[in-house]
């Protein structure tokens, strides 16, 4: 079993819909949780950063972390075709060696 | 802020030659830089971690004599693929972690990647 599980998709939604992404993990040492967006043949771009449990909102993006369930989510409101990309969850923690552990990525396609 | 560049973005080389990839943090000092490898439709695989002025720490299964890493300054790290072979063809991505920058000290900022094709 992988440390971080993420549905590979593809997830296809119509423009304007809410995109809902999530990851589950097994290592309780993770404290920092991130979501990255990666376009084809580009490096990952940091979207959201959350420390420990809770919600964080930034524009159209909302990140949620539930450490008790070992479950994190990313919601994208009013999705646009330009949001079509692969979304990677990542997490780290001092007790986990401070290295990022990535999910496999979910490919999202927003159709106009 | 927090911009990381990589050079070159794309390189083709003959089998047996060596290729150097540069990673620079443009607007912050990177105490730690990371090198990843990514195959098509797969997630990033960490190859090694380098701290400025010290030897890199390689992940299990990564040949340190083949993938030479130098972190010469707080803004520059290089990855040299020595005696490259077709199986080394991949997308190589670096990331940099600064000192208490945006998002905290655990946040990594990624470069745009370098596509290596070995003929």
List keywords for this structure.
heterodimer, A: 112 residues, mainly beta, 11 strands, 0% helix, 54% strand, B: 119 residues, seven-stranded mixed β-sheet, four-stranded antiparallel β-sheet
Provide an overview of this structure.
The complex is a heterodimer of chains A (112) and B (119). With 112 residues, chain A is an all-beta fold. Chain A has strands spanning 4-6, 11-14, 19-25, 32-38, 45-51, 54-58, 61-66, 71-76, 85-92, 101-102, 106-111. In chain A, strands 2, 4, 5, 9, 10 and 11 form a 6-stranded mixed beta sheet that branches. A 5-stranded antiparallel beta sheet of chain A has the order 1-3-8-7-6, with no helix packed on it. In chain A, strand 7 and strand 8 (71-76) form a beta hairpin. The termini of chain A are far apart. Chain B is 0% helix and 53% strand. In chain B, the strands form 2 sheets. In chain B, strands 2, 4, 5, 6, 9, 10 and 11 form a 7-stranded mixed beta sheet that branches. In chain B, a hairpin with a 5-residue loop joins strand 4 (30-38) and strand 5 (44-51). Residues 100-104 of chain B have low confidence and may be disordered. Chain A binds chain B through residues 31-32, 34, 36, 41-46, 49, 51, 88, 92-93, 98-100, 102-105, and chain B through 2, 4, 6, 34, 42-44, 46, 49, 91, 93, 95, 103-104, 106-113, 115.
Total number of helices of chain A: 0
Order of helices and strands of chain A: EEEEEEEEEEE
- Largest contact between chains: A-B, 22 and 23 residues
Helix content of chain B: under 10%
Mean pLDDT of chain A: 93
What is the structural class of chain A? mainly beta
* Uncertain regions spanning at least 5 consecutive residues of chain A: none
Rg from alpha-carbon coordinates of chain A: 13 Å
Shape of chain A: globular
Helix content of chain A: under 10%
Number of strands of chain A: 11
